[in-house]
Design a protein that fits this description.
The structure is a homodimer of 247-residue chains. With 247 residues, chain A is an alpha+beta fold. The first copy, chain A, has a domain at 2-166: NADH Oxidase (3-Layer(aba) Sandwich), CATH 3.40.109.10. Chain A contains 13 helices and 5 strands. Chain A has a 4-stranded antiparallel sheet with strand order 1-2-4-3, with helices on both faces. In chain A, helix 2 crosses helix 6 and helix 3 packs antiparallel against helix 8. Chains A and B meet through helix 1, helix 2, strand 1, helix 5 and helix 6 of A and helix 1, helix 2, strand 1, helix 5 and helix 6 of B. Strand 1 of chain A pairs parallel with strand 5 of chain B.
């Protein structure tokens, strides 16, 4: 386990070998053992292998080719639909049409996803999380026929790796851990915490390619711009409301 | 790993033995290796062991005694504060004051939390997730001095177990997994999926204790009521806005 966790790499190139049924089943069982709020299990996992559906998901996920390459796409959804139906069939009136319930269900889905990711990696499979899930949740809702009270929150691409990338850099632990209470960052702290990232060879290469002065500018001007964030933010909020979680 | 995942139990009684520094450090390192959006690592972990601060957290977490018993409380926060400060010190104007950015940061925090949970369990420690984190995020923000752009999304209580509970029931896998697309549930599906849970000895005991007719009513009338959900939902939304993530 420890080794699996410490050796995690995001894989972006996959062989087209299928995943054995029993292996996929073990991954899904691992997902199901994660903690869930009140043991309500208010999430669902959609397993997509069909080429035509994957092509539609590929569109939703900004045409990232690994969605087509990898044999299995797992879409993890916050899901109060099943629980609400159960309540109504059991003379109970559910009160889960609110933001807190959406967020509770999203937590369930995300903890299950990380169990699935680690179970897959331990068996020699590679994974990649697709952040585009929340960008185009509305499209994914249509593609996967998600009913009211169900929203996709993350996606795992799973398959046999066709690349062996090195370990990704991380901030020093003092950068993300606080003792007892939050200790806010002074300018010198920020300089120290980000020094390695700011000065890495990879960063120098990116700055040249993008003709920009700092790595932070690559994030704010290229990768995650204010304009895009605000556009996709509104779309996600509308999706959450439309699926039945009032705000 | 597989064994650790499959043997997960939520632990609600703890010995007061402290956690060795090197072990805690290994758990936090495991957390830091989880996938994060664009490798931005937009989360923080607050490690609380101080008795006085734990007593305040205990109030926020509905006075659940394990918050006092367990030696370590890990509060996982969605955190754009550090990243925004870095951007501003690097001639970049961050555009992360929106709901999508909050949710992105929450995903980072939750995947890291599940890595920490599994790393702790593999070393013989017990854990419990505290869903009360989102109920009283505003109180936790005050207690832990969380600045703007930082919101707690989940909490792990960690310590040596002082109980050995059995494995918790889960819905059959067909209840949470969908092949290719979502297949909505017919009444007969709900009956079949929930049969074991509806008819368990634990459920019969709870129904007698609560003088109610169905397990679903225990959820809707006792554990997670519409009134509570709506109250805490509004409070969470206000907290998210107040911390700087506009909606």
């Amino acid at each position: 386990m420890k080794e699996t966790i410490l050796n995690h790499r995001t894989i972006r190139k996959y062989k087209d070998d299928p995943i054995e049924k029993s292996l996929l089943s073990a991954i899904l069982t691992a997902a199901s053992r994660a903690s869930t709020t009140g043991n309500m299990q208010v999430y669902s996992i959609i397993v997509t292998t069909n080429k035509a559906i994957k092509e539609k998901l590929w569109e939703a996920h900004f045409r990232q080719n690994m969605v087509l390459q990898a044999p299995v796409i797992l879409t993890f959804c916050a899901d109060f639909n099943r629980f609400n139906k159960w309540c109504r069939q059991r003379k109970a009136e559910p009160g889960y049409d609110n933001f807190l319930s959406f967020f509770t269900a999203a937590i369930d889905a995300l903890l299950a996803a990380q169990n699935a990711a680690l179970a897959a990696e331990e068996q020699g499979l590679g994974i990649c999380y697709l952040g585009t899930t929340t960008y185009n949740a509305d499209m994914i809702i249509d593609i996967l026929d998600l009913p009211s009270d169900v929203i996709p929150v993350t996606t795992l691409v799973v398959g046999y790796p066709d690349e062996s990338p090195g370990l990704t850099d991380r901030l020093p632990m003092e950068g993300i851990v606080h003792q007892e209470k939050y200790r806010d960052y002074e300018p010198a702290d920020i300089d120290r915490i980000y020094a390695e990232k700011d000065n890495s060879e990879l960063t120098q290469k990116l700055l040249q390619e993008n003709n920009l002065e700092t790595l932070a500018q690559i994030f704010t001007q290229k990768r995650y711009t204010k304009k895009d964030n605000e556009f996709f933010s509104q779309k996600l909020l509308e999706g959450i409301r439309k699926q039945g979680f009032g705000m």
